[in-house]
Design goal:
The structure holds two protein chains of two kinds. By secondary structure, chain A is of the alpha/beta class. In chain A, about 30% of the residues lie in helices and about 30% in strands. In chain A, the strands form two sheets. In chain A, strands 9-8-7-10-6-1-4-5-11 form a nine-stranded mixed beta sheet, with helices on both faces. A two-stranded antiparallel sheet of chain A has the order 2-3. The mean pLDDT of chain A is about 95. Chain B is of the alpha/beta class. Chain B has two domains: about 170 residues, HUPs (Rossmann fold); about 120 residues, TPP-binding domain (Rossmann fold, 3-Layer(aba) Sandwich), CATH 3.40.50.1220. Helices cover about 25% and strands about 30% of the residues of chain B. In chain B, strands 7-11-6-1-4-5-12 form a seven-stranded parallel beta sheet, with helices on both faces. The longest helix of chain B has 15 residues. The chains are: A alpha/beta, B alpha/beta. At the A-B interface, helix 3, helix 4, strand 7, strand 8 and strand 9 of A face helix 3, strand 7, strand 9, strand 10 and strand 13 of B. The structure holds flavin-adenine dinucleotide (2 copies). The site of one flavin-adenine dinucleotide has 34 residues of chain A, from helix 1, strand 4, helix 3, strand 6 and helix 4.
Amino acid sequence: MRIFVCIKQVPDTETRIKLSADAGKIDEAGIKWVINPYDEFAIEEAIKFKEANPSAQVTAITVGPKARVNNALLTAMAMGADDSILIDSTESLDGVQTAKALAAAIQKEGGAHLIYAGKLSIDGSTSAVGPMLAELLKIPHVSVATEITYSGSALTIKREVEGGTMETYKVNTPALIAANKGLNKPRFASLPGIMKAKKKPIKEIPTSDLGVTGANSAVSFSQFELPKERAACKMIAGDAKAQAKELVRLLREEAKVL
Amino acid sequence: MKVLICLDFQDGHLKNSTQELLTVAGASGAEIITVAFGNGADKISDLGDWGIQKHYAGTSGALAKPSPEAYTDAIHKVLASENCDVVLGSSTTVNKDVFPRLAIRMDGAFISDLTELKLAPFAARRPMYAGKCTAAVNIKDGVKKFLLVRPNQLTISNPKKGRAPEVATVDGAATGTELTDVAGGSTKTLDLTEANIIISGGRGLKEADKFKLLYDMAEPLGATVGASRAVVDLGWVPHSMQVGQTGKTVAPSLYIACGISGAIQHIAGMSSSKVIVAINTDEKAPIFQKSTYGIVGDIFEIAPALTEEFKALK
Ligand SMILES: Cc1cc2nc3c(=O)[nH]c(=O)nc-3n(C[C@H](O)[C@H](O)[C@H](O)COP(=O)(O)OP(=O)(O)OC[C@H]3O[C@@H](n4cnc5c(N)ncnc54)[C@H](O)[C@@H]3O)c2cc1C
Ligand SMILES: Cc1cc2nc3c(=O)[nH]c(=O)nc-3n(C[C@H](O)[C@H](O)[C@H](O)COP(=O)(O)OP(=O)(O)OC[C@H]3O[C@@H](n4cnc5c(N)ncnc54)[C@H](O)[C@@H]3O)c2cc1C
């Protein structure tokens, strides 16, 4: 049983974003790169699956520049993934090209029993790659999963949609699940885990072997802007009652939002 | 240009988020066709106001209940007979399941969470890095566009023109996924992503039960209550209420942060709100640097006083 976990490397959430001189992208100097937080839930779920099904082989897979994303794969393997696939790309690929690269690589490996991904990345945040990959592989998907119950080839998956409504879906493997926070508690990589990870195989596949290039990306971004600085905060003095009264007056008369 | 809009409706009326999309499409002079699913999708009362040429409704079979898979199939069928250049929807959980699949199926381009949009000529922007910056979105000419727009970002202007469109039926199948249960949820308050006013609480509230103070404050305003991650991690409120880089990114007209310090991850998720109010005992809390109005004070005193003021507005 082949299990794939799609992981993306993203800037740490503490990162203060600065723009490149031409504002065509962000300035990546000094950024600390981490595994996308939602992908940690995906990795944990895959490892838990393997613990329950020892014959399963868990492969972490990523698309990105080798020089940095190698680390993300090492972390995933230190947590417990068996091996990795690194699709080395320094080009900016859009969601479609990224999903096509992942799909082609997974097909080359003989397909998947289950694929885990995150519900979205915290940098590009399009929530696209999971469903696109499932579509390319012609398998069902359920996104924003917060609970999975396994029973043979049947999976029961809970997710929360707008307004706090909980939906429960049934799917059969092969399927793709995109994880939300709450699905599980991702483990930390242990010291022995980190040592072992160094010996686990990382297979490199160039994007050219997968029929994918940046030139085929239909979507691109430009003219980056930082949020506009606000005028200095207007502090409201007085006792609680006076502060409340004055705030409501300002919200009505000055800001006109009430 | 021809545009297909996926409608969201409630109690027989178009949601505001959908009216925003209709406004954008109308302004472009495009031919507009629409599609909606579920019970009542064929009986939306205000369809006639928007110059819609044709409306497709899927109300039975797999389309009777929420099914991203069946919706995908149905929209794909509509697009097979209607050659559209643009497909528009609101950035909802279901649409984020449906639109990426359609983009693959139809060799198109997909982008979500647009906060600015014009169709002719195409111009769009969206947040990047979960709100830490924004960027212009470019899509290659001639590629079909599958676009999701964040609710509550665009203006609504109802042309009140035309007549009710012809309504056609569409069907869709789901073979891989089956919805077996739907539970909970309230339609009384808007979701955080749609809310016009949000009142969020943080660790300064001291305990879970004290969130009641915020619900009391929200009630007279019809506001939605949100939270910082700290209190989600403490288990006081569910993750669906979390605002921030690893929660929801929101941009209401008014955001009131109660007992929230203003960590970079929280700010990322709410800094594009129009007006931000911070209530915090610590005058040095970073949240004040991002706020329009600030109150240095104890939330346990300020919240009841504000609730009285909000009630008096009614
Ligand atoms: C600086 C910058 C430049 C960008 N340039 C472009 C561009 O030119 N054109 C464009 O369309 N997009 C661009 N993107 C957006 C983004 O990197 C790509 O679209 C990317 O293909 C994935 O989309 P996403 O980040 O929205 O991921 P999502 O679709 O939100 O990710 C969902 C899940 O898919 C999986 N996943 C996503 N990406 C990968 C990956 N690389 N490897 C393995 N699994 C993955 C993960 O499990 C993730 O949790 C850019 C992003 C940034 C931050
Ligand atoms: C990977 C990662 C992702 C994260 N994602 C998010 C995210 O999406 N969203 C998010 O919010 N955080 C996120 N965080 C957490 C973030 O770093 C902060 O820890 C968190 O936002 C702090 O929450 P808080 O402001 O409620 O608590 P605190 O920082 O503890 O602040 C409490 C505030 O309450 C004030 N206070 C105390 N008593 C009172 C009173 N009686 N009346 C009024 N004020 C009072 C205090 O002065 C203080 O400023 C993330 C962190 C990491 C590492």
